[in-house]
What we know:
Chain A is an alpha/beta fold. Chain A has 5 helices and 16 strands. In chain A, strand 12, helix 5 (196-205) and strand 13 (210-214) form a beta-alpha-beta unit.
Amino acid sequence: MIKQEMCEVISQQQIASHIYKLTLKGELVHGMNEPGQFVHLKVSQGMDPLLRRPISIAEIDHENSSFTMIYRADGKGTSMLAEKSEGDSIDVLGPLGSGFPLNAVKKGETALLVGGGIGVPPLYELSKQLVKKGVNVIHVLGFQAREMVFYEEEFSMLGETHIATADGSYGTHGFVTDVISHNGIKFDCLYTCGPTPMLKALEKAYQHKKVYLSLEERMGCGIGACFACVCHTGDDPTGHSYKKVCSDGPVFKAGEVVL
Amino acid sequence: MSSINISLPGLNLKNPIMPASGCFGFGREFSQLYDLSELGAIMIKATTLSPRFGNPTPRVAETSAGMLNAIGLQNPGLERVINEELKWLEQHNVPIIANVAGSTEEDYVAVAKAISKARNVHALELNISCPNVKTGGIAFGTIPEVAKDLTKKVKDVSQVPVYVKLSPNVTNIVEMAKAVEQGGADGLTMINTLVGMRIDIKTGLPVIANKTGGLSGPAIKPVAIRMIHEVSQQVSLPIIGMGGVQTAEDVIEYFYAGASAVAVGTANFVDPFVCPNIIKELPALVEQLGFDHISECTGRSWKKNEPLAYHRA
């Protein structure tokens, strides 16, 4: 059930270079169940910026009616969001989209969670829910450089965690795909979120595996009405069939849509 | 008695507020949020003869107080719009204005003929002004004689009144309005988006894959107000105004300029409840301004009227 609500800021802190962790309180949390969904935030009451900002949900806390987002402040909207502090309120629309399917793995099986940069946050709630279900989780998280790394400790508490940096300043030097092959990581299901080149590489490398990808695209409405964020489907790559990233996704099974 | 019901050719509206074409799909998404029968009407997404996938992404870019879009008339095509979308909409007690688009005269005529027969389609909105399709469209919207001929041909086959959606991307919009009036149009809808562009300073390239897009939102409201102010004094057709409407006050401003109803576009993306909210607020504002009925507001900015009660007080 999609709701619009003014949510109160419980806390906000910077946790890495340009990376912020924001926790909000609101009743719409009780509509959040699937990891991988997102909310659409109006960061200012005025007209600049005019549109909402889609931000993924990193953690859901039903008990306290709160949820946490981790985002990068690099544009006008997200920089304004980073200025919000305890007690402020933010106009939230959500939860939106369909998330990662938990039933793709069974208890005792192994799930590999691969995140790139600001694609890492939704994997945290996913990992927590998988662990709760009795699934073994392995995390491979890629960042640009040491100062952008976040949540290594939090993920480590849930399962084996590997970090890679593109410049080699921390963890393994290179890409997440290198980490997976060098360590001979075996898994039953792969869940991933991050930049499109990374998603493409993973989709190609694990064609015969169960793979779920979370996509990012510029959005207008966030609810499926404006057709800004469509992509072609895998079975009709140049035709008229389409999926909307905001409402059919953002999570798709590998091959379902053209990356 | 309602102070905001409006009667226009083909349209008996319980209120003058409707979502604008392209900003509301075919209503399915918003029906999860509120009862669509609260709306005065719905202008559904443009329909073309054959299905269209539209343009590559990115299709939208934000600008100050506005947005650019180049969706490219994505739609499932005439047959599916009639059999699936319009059929689905029948469960809601709301008149539909079907936006008709095409790249050739034959396309427009074929779509208009078929879609105007649908039970819940009460009027057509002839889209001669989409800035985001490469072929055809633009001539229909910028050359008066071409627009007039197309209007005439569509009028000949349509079972319902035809409103022509005017483009602001012309030197003389009055000339266009007069041409479609001569072509037999029953009303005008104005304005479509203004052609614009944004360039990414990191890549040096246009943000939108189509390069240009149509600018909408509060940024274009003064342009629309000016154009409606001009056109409404020169033609006798009713006007459905649109461009940056966000509040009940904006609606009144459009009426003062010369509009008889108002469509809400981009604001649906900012606040999905904007239409029902405006509808709730409108009667009180009409009364506060000293009017018995909102229709008294139409053309107030140029008609010779008594000074407003609001200002006398």
